[in-house]
Amino acid sequence: MLLTIGQVLSPWGSGSPKEPLPTSTEQLSPEHNALPQPAHEAPLPPATINEDGDDLEDDIRRRDAKYYPETRQPSAQIDRMDAEQSQSSQESKAAVRRLEDELTKYKTHIKQQEIQLSDRDAVIRELQSNLAQIQDKHQKLEAIFVARQKYALQSMVANNGYIPKEDQSIRDELSNLTESIRSWAKKNCFISFADLEEVPKTEKDMVIHQLTGYCSQPDWNSTMREISIPQNKVPMVLLHALLAKDLFEQIFTDPFFAFPKIDGDHTTSTEGCFQRIYRIMIQADEQKAHTWRSLTLQNLSVTRHPNTETFLQNMTKQLVRGLVTRFLTSSARTLLRKVENPEAGDRRAQELQSLYDGAAQLALSLWTQRAFMTCRSLEELPPFTVSNPVMRAHRLHHLDEDDTRLDGKRILLCVQPAVLAFGSENAEHYNQHKIWSPAVVVVREK
Question: Region Disordered: what ranges (predicted)?
């Protein structure tokens, strides 16, 4: 058996194979081997030796020592490769994590873009819907415009060139007139209520007396006790009421206001003659009477020569100059602030004349309509109701549209009358009315 081992190991030996040695250098007697051995001691195995008689383990150690460097080099390479593989694995994992993070970011970005696209699509759909509505509305308005244009042309042909005004246009013009009156009063009245303390009571009472039909109180003191607006605003409000009363009573209640006196007779005027004829015609045939009034004023408002004034334009200018002079010398002067010099007084008069002239031209244009115009002041107005379209509280009351705290209260002052129109442009339905301008009122809050 040992020979076999030696033969197997012979390639690592340095010499040729030797003869096998005996198992032991001395022979034991059979008697010695037959002696009983201690129970705890096992027989020792024979020593392992090679063919040269050397210990096999030493041979193996020598062999290992010889080939250790050769076996260590692959091990180092393996360790280096393991380290490189580990580093490469870590780098790969880091790269994977970075890619996963980037992928997450891309997914988030894509999700945000999808949301933005969805929102944009919603906006586009809404805009398309709005565009469709606008186009539909435009088509309807265009159809209305064409119909009204056709109606206007038909009316112009039927009425010898006359084109009636739209109700909304009339309302806008009257609203502008209201603002012009308020602005002039604000600019020219006393700034402070204390400025009126030096004015004699009789003069202040004349102010209230001039507002008869517009103010519910008989004198200055009783009016001041009842009025609830800030005191420093009282001069402006009263001056507005005085100016509005004069304008509307002189111009907007009489279609023939600009007609002159009959020559040589200062007691009778063409205005009075036309008014009497008009009233008689209304009793006979209301429709024909209003048509006659409209046509008469239309004919007197045109001229064949473009550079010349019409009859009514010339008469209106003369009337306006007289109305302005009379107003500035009336009790209204009690509320006017003092002017610094004559030039300032002239500018004030000129501004007032421009206001009167504009109001007169507006009134003439309204009197040429087939509708019949009337004004309603304090005596024709019921107790205040915020929902009543014929009146609105003065802005100094700070009353909202749905504020009913003043409902049922009596009206103290009509700052500006309501303007109502009866009938249509076809000279029909004179039992029906529409509101061209609501009354502006100061209400008793006490």
Answer: 1-94
**pLDDT, tens digit (0-9, with 9 covering 90-100), for 228-270:** 999 999 999 999 999 999 999 999 999 998 886 544 444 545 6
One-character DSSP codes across 112-139: HHHHHHHHHHHHHHHHHHHHHHHHHHHH
Contacts for 359 with CB less than 8 Å, ≥ 6 apart: 177, 247, 251, 252
- Residue 246 to residues 114, 249, 323, 338, 432: CA-CA distances in angstroms? 70, 5, 8, 22, 27
C-beta of residue 234 within 8 angstroms of C-beta of residue 192? no
- Closest C-alpha among 133, 332, 140, 153 to residue 245: 332
Phi, psi angles (nearest 5°) of residue 247: -60, -50
CB 395 within 8 Å of CB 237: no
Helix (H/G/I), strand (E/B), else coil: 393:
strand
What's the distance, CA 133 to chain centroid? 19
User: Counting beta carbons within 10 angstroms of the beta carbon of residue 108, is it exposed (0 to 12), middle (13 to 18) or buried (19 or more)?
Assistant: exposed
Return the amino acid letter for 256: F
162 within domain boundaries: no
Q: How many C-alpha atoms does 66 have within 13 Å on its Cβ side? A: 9
Residue 326 lies in a domain: yes
Task: Count CB neighbours of 439 within 10 A.
Answer: 25
User: pTM here?
Assistant: 0.64
Provide the domain limits for residue 422.
168-443
User: How many Cβ atoms from other residues are within 10 Å of residue 332's Cβ?
Assistant: 23
Residue 388 lies in a domain: yes
In what helix (H) or strand (E) does residue 347 lie, and over which residues does it extend? helix 342-367
Q: How far apart are CA 205 and CA 58, in angstroms?
A: 148
Q: What is the pLDDT of residues 152-200, one digit of tens each?
A: 555 554 555 567 889 999 999 999 999 999 999 999 999 899 989 889 9
Angle between the N-to-C axes of helices 311-328 and 342-367, in degrees from 0 to 180, rounded to the nearest 10: 130
Is 39 part of any domain? no
Residue type for position 166 = E
Q: Which two tokens stand for residue 441?
A: 């009122």
d(CA 270, CA 282): 18
Question: Total structural domains in the chain?
Answer: 1
